[in-house]
Amino acid sequence: MARIQFLGAAKTVTGSKFLVDTGRTRFMVDCGMFQGAKNLRLQNWQPFPVQPSSVDHVLLTHAHIDHVGMLPRFIRDGYHGPVWTTPATRELTEITLLDAAHLQEEDANFANKKGYSKHKPALPLYTTGDAEKAARQLRSLDYGQVMDLSEDTRVTIRDAGHILGSGIVQVDLRAGSKPLRVIFSGDLGRYHAKILRDPSPFENTDYLLVESTYGNRQHPEEQTQESLAEIINQTARRGGSLVVPAFAIGRTQTLLYVIREMKSDNRIPDLPIYVDSPMAVDVTRLFCNYIART
Ligand SMILES: [Zn+2]
Q1: How far is the CA of 291 from the centre of ligand 1 (A)?
Q2: Span between the terminal Cα atoms of the chain, in Å
Q3: Residue among 75, 54, 66 at smallest CA distance from 10
Q4: What is the pLDDT of residue 102?
Q5: Cβ neighbours of residue 158 closer than 8 Å, sequence gap 6 or more
Q6: What are the backbone dihedrals phi and psi of residue 38, each rounded to the nearest 5 degrees, phi first?
Q7: Ligand 1 mean position to 187 CA, how many Å?
Q8: CATH number of 3-209, picked from 3.50.50.60, 3.10.20.280, 1.20.120.530, 3.60.15.10
Q9: The pTM is what?
Q10: What is the structure's pLDDT at 60?
């Protein structure tokens, strides 16, 4: 009898981690960091509820830090196996983990300089070296490619349409007399997004573990592009500059695409655009590479 344990993203939306034990193999789906309030962030410093060396495989749904952010620590604490994910998530994860390690190191340095941490010295959750080591354990699995983790466990990743490379993990178990399909949705995108494909449909699922971040809300049908064009035109008319804060992965690229589209349609003037974030620039380059390949 296979067992699933929820090790994060339960009663909260960050720290996504599932452990599946089929009796023949043990694997994790995601290895996310807890984010937000201090009591959640403190959980990242607790020992893992599972011995990392007892796990055979890790699968990642997508490169957001609440799904991959604890990987360097998991590896430092003893996980030696492969980390499977799509080629784009593999490249994005390397960028996000190095960025996260850098921020952790900066925070620890700052705490030591100002002396406000009760830990002497304050340490990062993990270092750049740990993140680099984690990146070396990443392995590619294309969308739709079938892979056997063990005699009784087959996995396939399908497009989740959430960010570049994002996946829905389909697990087919052959334990017992009848096959069993378990689906881990990961984070799901919306339909008809500008620069991503629609999420793939699930088929013949016995158990569905679905994200529910916005489960209690209805996304309004906003005329976002019209509002944005109006703001840009108003600002341009009075000779101002528009500063737009945007997430480095996904949102920045969508904004660039939409602004470019509005320029081509002459709905806004031909203004210069600057992306003031090395991480967002790296990720945009990656988006362009993958778009060129499809
Ligand atoms: Zn996400």
Answers
A1: 20
A2: 40
A3: 66
A4: 95
A5: 143, 144, 167, 168, 170, 200
A6: -60, -40
A7: 5
A8: 3.60.15.10
A9: 0.91
A10: 98
What is the whole-number distance in angstroms between the Cα of residue 63 and the centre of ligand 1?
7
How far is ligand 1, taken at its centre, from the CA of residue 166, in Å? Answer: 8
Considering the chain, tell me which residue range(s) the CATH 3.40.50.10890 domain(s) occupy.
224-293
Ligand 1 centroid from CA 13, angstroms:
10
- What is the C-alpha to C-alpha distance for residues 70 and 261, in angstroms, rounded to an integer? 37
Structure tokens at 79: 């996980």
pLDDT (0 to 100) of residue 294 = 61
Residue 115 tokens, joined: 């002396």
What whole-number distance in Å separates Cα of residue 79 and Cα of residue 59?
13
Per residue in 151-191, pLDDT (tens digit) is 999 999 999 999 999 999 999 998 677 899 999 999 999 88
224-293 is a CATH 3.40.50.450 domain: no
42 C-beta neighbours (distance < 10 Å), count: 10
What is the pLDDT at residue 274? 96
- Position 207 scores a pLDDT of 94
Q: Which residues of the chain have pLDDT under 50?
A: none
Kindly report, as residue ranges, where domains of CATH 3.60.15.10 are found in the chain: 3-209
169-202 as b/e: b if 16+ CB within 10 A: bbbbbbeeeeebbbbbbbbbbeeeeeebeebbee
Phi, psi of 150 (to 5 degrees): -160, -175
The whole-angstrom separation of Cα 144 and Cα 170 is: 10
Q: How far is the CA of 64 from the centre of ligand 1 (A)?
A: 5
Strand (E) or helix (H) holding 139: strand 138-140
